[in-house]
Amino acid sequence: MPELQHSTDLCGTYQEQGYLVVERLFSSDEVARLCAAVTNILETPDLSSVAEIEERDPGVARRIWSPTKHSPVFAEMASDPRMLNIIEQLIGPDILLQYTKVHMKPPRIGSKAEWHQDFAFYPHTNTDMVTAMVCLDDHDRDNACLHVVPGSHKRGMADHYVDGHFRGMVRGPDVPDFSDAFAFEAPRGSVIFLHCLMLHGSPHNHSLRQRRAFFVGYRAADAFPIYWGPHSAHNEPSIKVLRGNRSKFARVEAGHWHLPYPQRGFGSLFELQSGTNMAHGPGKAGYSAHELEP
């Protein structure tokens, strides 16, 4: 199976493949500062107040919500000119910060992320939305690196419903096994930029090594949410202009977007895909309870 193609034709690669890989965009020292911040955040006595807990170990975190609100080093990296210069080539000069998070796949128990498209969780008026994933460790197949289906962003939005309810995952004959998919293997400090319609996921981490990543969601200023669900409710109050200006106009792409109506509130795609959100009471607020400003 061929490996992911790394290219210096940034915009061309992104438009054709739906992803862009930039190896070692950040130095080891810069990544070390983020890792130290992650450790500091997770040292809180009440881990569940800042992170989502791994299902297989109540003492281990698998996601930190909005790390930019806990440490300035994350905000600095999200707004770093090296990042924004690339984002501007992909979606234009007016750039908004939509969300940030840290995913951790702890050794042996790191959760699986089923195949999905980010746009399914937060449909907007257009698809100029990019997720940048910064590798905080060396990522490879052994420690459950991100897997993608190149060119899948050109197919439009896939069905993320199961039994009549939004489950945040795609199934069917067009979805490959992880063993047959393209694997994003790269050293720490590297960044992969993903189109919001790129089909992607990652298997369980059965290795003895951790696999951490800092995620930053960017969008063009003229992309507006078309569904005010939990994701918009927790994102929109803290939207920030990183470059250029806000837009007074919404740019609208033609299409039919299936809105994300889950059977019950959920805290993350992990909960939604596994069905553990169904154990929550009817008042479950999703991640808005964690990510809205006090």
Write a structural description:
The protein contains 7 helices and 14 strands. It has 294 residues and is an alpha+beta fold. Strands 1, 2, 3, 4, 6, 11, 13 and 14 form an 8-stranded antiparallel beta sheet that branches. A 4-stranded antiparallel beta sheet has the order 5-12-7-10. The protein has a two-stranded antiparallel ribbon with strand order 8-9. The termini are far apart. The N terminus and C terminus are likely disordered.
SSE inventory with pairings:
Layout: H1 10-17, E1 19-22, H2 28-42, E2 51-54, E3 57-65, H3 72-78, H4 81-91, E4 95-105, E5 113-116, E6 129-135, E7 147-148, E8 161-162, E9 165-166, E10 182-183, E11 191-195, E12 200-202, E13 211-220, H5 230-235, E14 240-243, H6 269-274, H7 288-291
Antiparallel strand pairs: 1-11, 2-3, 3-4, 4-13, 4-14, 5-12, 6-11, 6-13, 7-10, 7-12, 8-9
